[in-house]
Each structure stands twice: as structure tokens, then as C-alpha cells.
User: What shape does this take?
Amino acid sequence: MKHRAARWLREPLLHFLLAGGALFLLHGLLNRDASPADGEIVVSEARVASLAEGFARTWMRPPTAEELQGLVDDYVAEEVYYREALALGLDRDDTIVRRRLRQKLEFLFDDIASAPPPTDAQLQSWLEAHAAKFAEPERLSLQQVLFSPARRGDGARGEAERALAELRAGRGPADPRQLGDPTLLPPALESASLPEIAAAFGNDFADRLEEAPVGEWIGPVPSTFGLHLVRVDDREAEELPALAEIRPRVLSDWEAGQRRGANDAFLARLLAKYEVRIEAAPAEALERSSPSVGGGTRP
Amino acid sequence: MGPSTGIRLVGFAVAIATASPAAAADPAPADEPASSATPYSPYAGRTHPMRPLFGDTHLHTSFSMDAGAFGARLTPSDAYVFAKGGEVTASRGQRAKLSRPLDFLVVADHSDGMGFFPLILGGDPAILADPQGRKWNEMIRSGQGAEAAVDIIVNFGKGTISKAILPVPGTPSYQGAWRKTIEAAEEANDPGRFTAFIGYEWTSNTGGNNLHRNVIFRDDGARAGQIEPYTTMKPLGSDDPVDLWKWMAAYEEKTGGEVLAIAHNGNLSNGRMFPVVEAFGRKLDRSYAETRARWERLYEATQTKGDGETHPFLSPNDEFAAFERWDKGNLDGTVAKTQDMLEFEYARSALKLGLRLEAELGVNPYQFGMIGSSDAHTGLAAMEEDNFFGKTTPQEPGPERLTATFVANPDTGVTIMDWEVSSSGYAAVWATENTREALFDAMERRETYATTGSRMVVRFFGGFGFEPADAQTRDPAAAGYAKGVPMGGELGAAPAGRAPSFLVAALKDPLGANLDRIQIVKGWLDAGGALREQVYDVAWSGDRKPGRGKLPPVGDTVDVERGTWTNTIGASELIAVWKDPQFDPEQRAFYYARVIEIPTPRWTAYDAVRFGVKPLPGTKLTVTERAYASPIWYTPGS
Assistant: This one.
């Protein structure tokens, strides 16, 4: 469906009105009995059939004549109560009714507001416009050598500094870990984001690596475990993945964005018909309602 | 294809066990200079897991009937967003975020009545057509949510919820809830970064005795979507675990998938979790033992409803046994606890009972590894003491939770206060990568440990060839895997004259407290048929000297008034090789590692400071976080 829709065809309010009209017609067709003159209740043949069908779905058998009569009577009673309740305005201050009606209108609008599928170009520009949401964080590959104050006491810092000089002069052993202490800490991390580095070594350590140069031993870097000599071997810059790699994510975000935008616009248009006056400042209202439940048995 | 299919077979354990002594006979020192046969890269050929993955196997959302009734509004999708480190608005309106993401999560909503609460709240027409449904809907709308919740739970417990409104498998409402559960997991699952398991909690609770099981699928929605969860009400379901295991077998048969179950902390089962004579009217036999051992390879040793490792009555010589105990009754407080129940509902005693049952039946039904999880009913796996979002929605942070009552049963006098709820725990899994398959397989080989919320790293290996020098190598894990079996494994026959030795190491949580000590807990069946246990201190901080067998306490830096502590005591890392000094090759035994942190403020202390509320007398204000590594078993002549 690549045709270029005229602008007015995409107008949400129009969609709403069209669908509303269609719904009205449909409703009229199915429920000929539902809109006769006041004071008259007509139960159409179609209605009786649908009552019987509903019964059969639940009980896996058709209703008896007696049962069907009961259903019809109940339907009539429901219609009477429904009309009388409306007349009394009982729907007005009922949270459930209000919420349900709002929900029905929202769903109705949601269905209509679904735009045609976006093109790759549209998704690409969506991806770029929301780069922060989709970007892969910067990733570092590093190795580290621990000098443990618990094992070396006060000498740990001096020994770490001497080892650093060795490593920088290219005189260190093939496996630099031989200079340091045994530890359960990982000797190296590959392609780790700063939060992942912090999860392994703590925040102080990760903070120090934010600006660390590549290919150079630095330190001693303190952490909650001791002092470290660290070499960042590689930095993969923050990167926006290609659309093809994350298309489903971008698509669902795009759809959510369209829905949000359309819903907001729809509400704004409806709101334009009203003048809204709020008589209590929200802050004051908050003080009067503190959600609290307590007591009793709980799971 | 992972190794897990084989794990179910007894042969798996034997394979590991026989491989290890052979390797142990000629151990290659880890620091040996490179020979021509050794690759230059010290990491080449290394396939063992490098870091533990932390997660929660037991989290409820508004889809669980009781959670929804208590005010939880977060959905499974919200729960995954939060576990991945995202910020969400909790049900009572506060913004919530973890200090760091978890690696995996199982949303495990109750099997019975799944999706019920969103229907009641939403005023579903079918619900409103039923007197009971309408009553609850009206109660909730008029602000009596807590009363409605109690009524719902009581009616559920008694099986008196109207059939017309309870979503049961086969109804569109139930199918819808299960489909949404699956969709949420599928969407959140991000292999390599974050694992979102599909799962549910089978909610057997007859008589208020908690026998829940968390059921976890290795599979994706294409398989898990072919079934609906197993419930407890007849005729569709059953409250007997044996029937759940049959259902699990049928699932695997039907779909070619794989599924496991983790028993809920048994501390509220009133002695029903670990039967030794009969269960549900049938005598315990070899078939029961085999089936249970096949499907339940892990056990939830700690969670918000208390810690289930052991009890002071069972372990009078263990000075750390009196920890976050809930020992007043069963789940709903309808039956008070008696001491004779305790042996059949705590992890350590169950491990011991398993040894005796194995001697009698030929199979150990209780050969389980350990994990911790939250059992939170908030959609929030937030088990950090300074960031604890409670067990239920009313317990989300606020001044009330220092003084409110959680369970109060006037008939039995069983009362549990909100302050007694534990900010615990997490499951740590040594998986080779962060995927459903790798995590599931690691769970099946029991390479797991429980923590009470801390993210410490724990390594634990057993074999017959560990030497003190192994604690000095640069890659203890390499020595551990080369010379022994990891946590959850089994030792083969002891070489003549050799006792088992263990390499155990722990690294503090990078954002948490230092470590006090590592202990090894041994349980065994002695020559006279008596079950015995002993706790050994094997590594500790500072230069403390054990006097009369007991290591002096590490100290305490907690300032309760200010809610602070310092890492000026304890160690950031501990490692040791320990050999059993009282080994008898004729006696069955298990060994598990317990790691204890230095004391830190409990969530109650942080709350007292933040909300300016005086805690009730007797409120515990400090905690010693800990980890329990899955045991390693020794079986004579195996």
C-alpha cells in the first residue's frame, strides 16, 4: 500500500467520525430493537438467537424453551434497568462505567488510528531522531592486575607503582598478572560497557576508566578490592546500530510513538470543545488522599 | 542442544565424578610455564563459566491474584523492564530502579487464577454478572482493597471462588493471561545480555501449608505456548507434587521442550515440604525419590518470607542459624508451628534426610542445589537493603511498614509483622553465557548458589587432590575445574587413604560489604544411622584465632541511628583449601559452602532513618548477608 493518501484521509478525527458512523449503522442493523420510541422494548429475532447462542457457548448445549424464556425475560429486565439507570444518571459518578466508556473510545480510536506500515526511510529517520534510545553504549576491552593491601599491607601502593614503571618500560612478564596478587576478579574484560565494568569492579574503578587512554598501563586505580594497574586495549565508540539489526525494536517504538501522537492529538481536539476549570490546586488535593491499605492476612 | 538432557540421567553425575579423580591424579599446575603444547593465550580452550549471573526465579506481578488484590498494578512487561535496570513507577506511585541490572528473571505468577485480578479491577462483564465477583469489584472500588484481598485469598484457599468467574485453563481469560506472560518474556529476552524465562508458580497450598513450585521453561513461546500452566484444582489440576511432575513429563513429551521446578522455601509448609514416610497418602518409595530428584534439582533456600537454610532448634551449635527465621506457623497462620515440623522444612535437615532416604531407597530425593529468590508480589525484584520495595504492594517504601502487621490469625495467635519480611534474595548461576539454554543447563547441573540479596561471587570445588597451593593460583577456577567438581557436583569413590578436599573462594559484592568468613557445612549419616552436621570455619578476615573451636565475631561497624557502616573490618576476598578432618569413606556426606558478610544495616534501619519512624521494640536492625553454595555430595562405593 504505497499510494500517497491525501492529507485529509489521514485526519484522525475524520477516521473517528467515519468509524463512529459505521459503528452506529452496524449497531442499528444488529439491534433493531434497541432504538425504538421511548417506552417500547422490542426483542428482535436476532437478539433471541444471540441469547441462545451465548447460552450454548457456556453450557455446550442449546437452551430449553423454558431456559430461553428466562434469558429473554432477563434481557428485558436488563434493558429496563439500563434505561432507568441512564435516566437517573447513575452512569455519571461510577468509576467503572466511566473507565469502561473511556476505554471503549480509546480502543475504537486505537484501531482506526493505526497508520499504514512505515517505510525503511521513515524508520531510519525515527532511529536517528531517537538515537539515545537505540545507541549501543561505548564498550571497553581491558586487562587489570590487582595489588591487594590485605596481602601486602602498606607496601601495596609502592609495589604497584614500581610494577607500573616496569610495564610501561616494556620490562614486564608475558602475563602481567604475575606481578600482582591472585584474585577471583576477572583478569580481563572484553567489550564491556561502563555499567558492566562497574558491576564487576565498583563505581570508582569504572569512573577512572572513562577517560583512560588506549594501549597504555595506568594506575594504581583504587577499587573496593585494592589497587589495580589497568590497560584499556580497545574502545568501541558508542554506535547507532544499522536499522536492519534492530528493525523490530525500531518498528515497535515507531508504532508506539505514532499511537501516542495520534492519541494526544485526538484528545487535544476533543478538549478544544471544552472549557476546563480546576477548582482545587493539585498539591492540596494530594494532601487529602494518601493511598494506604494495611492489616489482615497477606500472601 | 545443551548437556541438560543427559543431566536427568543418573549417568551424568557419574560421568563428572569419574572424570575428576582421573584428572586429579596428575594435576597440571596452573602457573606452569608455557610448553610447546600449551597455547600462548592463557584463556584459549577455557570453557568454564567466568562470572555468576544474578537473577530472580520467583517474581509475581498483578497477574497473580493475591498480588493484584493487594494493589500490584505492574505487569510482567514492567517486571522485566525493571530487572533490566530500567526505571518504573511502582504500584503505589514511587519511582523505582535497581542499583544495577539483574542478568535474568522469571516472572512466576500463580497458576491458579492467573490474570484474575486485572479482570476484577477492570469490571469485566462476566465478573460483574456474578455476585461474588461484583462484591469484590465493589469493595475494591470503594477503597476496601485489603479486605477484598483477604476475602479472595481465603475463598481461594477454601476453593469457594465461584466457578463462573475464576479463570481456569481452557477459558479465554486464562489463555489471554498466559499468552501475555509469554509475550512479555519473549519481548524482554535478549540473548547474551538478559534472559527472560517463561515460567509460573504452581500454587499448592492445601490447608495453608505452602508447597508451591516455580516452574521454569528452557524453551521459547513456540513450545511453552502449546500448553497452559498446571493448576491445583481438580479435575484440571492437583495439589499433589507427584501430579505436577507427571504434567512436566507430559509437557516434554508433547513439545520436545524442557522444564524444571524449584520448590518454594519450605518454612511455611509445616513439615510437609520434605516428607520421609508418606506424602499425599502414598508411602515414599524409590519412584517418588527418582521423580522428585529428576524434576527438582534446585531448592529456594531464602526469600522475603524468611530464610530456610537451617533453624537454631535443628542446628544448636551453629551461631549463625538464628537468621531471618519465620517459624510461627504455616502460610496463612491457621496452624501454629511445632518443633517436630522443623526437620522436614529446612534445607540443611532435608539434605541430611536425603542421605538416609538414599540409603533406604537407593535414590536421594533431596539432592538439591540452592538458590535464593524474592517471591515479591510487586513486580519489582528489588532485594537490596537500602532499596527494598517490599514483598507486597502495601509494603512498598513508606513509614507504615515499620509498624504494620503482615499476618495476624487471632485463632492461632500467629502474628507476623511487616518488619520481619526479609529483603532477600537472589539466585546466582554459573552459566557459560547469558541465554535461556545456558542458564537452564547450569541450573540442572546445580551450579548455583543462593544469596540473601548481596551479589558476592562464590566459587566452590570438591575433589581428592586439592592442595593449599591451589588457593594461591591466579585462576582458582581453572584449578577447580581441572582437579574437581564445581558446586552441585558429586564426588566419586575416594582413593585409598584420601579425604575429600575443597577449594572455596569468595569475592565481596563490588557495591556491598566486606566478608567475615567462609564456612563449610558438612552433613553425614554416621555408622550408627544417625544424621550429623558440623560447621567448619575455613577462611576468615584479619588475624582472628579460633578459640575452643569458635572463631571470634568479626565486629560490627553499623551505626543504626544513622543507617551507616564501613568496610574497615572484613576482607574483600577470601580463599582457602580445606580438607575434611573427620572423613570416613564408608559414610555418605554432603558439603556446602556458606559465606557470611560483615554486619550491615537491615532495611528496617534505613527506613527508620529515611521516614523518621521509631521501629517497634524487638525489630531487627542489622543483617549479615550470606550466600549458600550448592552442596557437593560424597557417596561411598559410587
